[in-house]
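User: Hey, quick favor. My workstation is busy. Could you predict this chain's structure for me?
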Amino acid sequence: MNRYFSISRYISIVIKEFLHMMRDRLTIGMVIGIPLIQLILFGFAINTNPKHLPTVLINQDNSPEIRTLISAVQNTRYFDIQYKDISLSQANQLMKQSKVQFIIQIPADFTRRMIKNQHPSILLTTDGTDPSAAGGAIEALNYLSLHVFTRYFQGHGLFYLQTKPAAFNVIVHNKYNPEKVTQYNIVPGLAGVILTMTLVMVTGLAITREYEQGTMESLLATPLRPLEVILGKITPYILVGYTQLLLILLAAFWLFNVPIYGSIVLLMLMTLPFIIANLLVGITFSTIAKTQLQAMQMTFFFFLPSILLSGFMFPFYGMPNWAQVIGNFLPLTHYLRIIRGIVLKGNDFMILWSSIWPILLFGLIIGVVCIKRYRQTL
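Assistant: No problem, here it is.
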């Protein structure tokens, strides 16, 4: 029996593996810590019914009835009215910068027409580049059109306004994506997701592969400085990143019929800091990890928050404030605003600057960390 299977030999291997596992503290920490952190982080942050979305209110009828309506709109908790008393052009500029999700416009003769049973309309403009954020808010506003003035009508004898159709209409304009085509939102965003995943992964293995293959000693014997090594390793992958981006844009245009309203040249220019930032993240992981397996684990630890907290899968402004703070540290969050802004909104450099400087700052910080972490000894 011992010839085929021995309990003692089996127990010896088990003990050896346990000892090896306990000595590898980094792997143990990642195996136990990463799932726990992700469970807590994503469990609280992800919200498929986003509320407190930033809103512009353009109100031209300052009657008591309208003040009642505005209070009811805020009480739905879907609309966070952050801007008032601004022009329509200023409101549109805020939406182009992805700083607001909704623009609510109330016309000057709204109350007079409502009392005359002429069913006036409120215009709700939504940012169509993130259509999933608007569903609950639109439903809440339509509900208010039926019920918000019930007590007022009863007190003033306007019983004819309590029956359907509603006292006023809600006209919804999905700006930048009027037909609410999902591909218009998803496909440009996939460019950032794919670049993040592949670029961090390939450079995350760069230095650990040198150690595991035994070629790092030869590299350290050369007079190369850390900055020269790091730039030399990431430069080929910059071309890889641009190749991926071009393939995605061609597929978006030819396969999914995604309109491209902005400048492709500007998009290429704005993509360079994003590509470099992700490559530096991968190199940094590679300097920390002792094996390629650890580098892969770190890559997924970075990738999952990026895809879930950036606004790609779930509305960014629907997350709690602390989750938005974390999301704003991630390059993908800002790149999604850049690529969707160029492709769907036709944004120019001045509008995009508020999204590009956080990526530049992130790249600078992670680059300094990467150089400091690079070991010039075995």
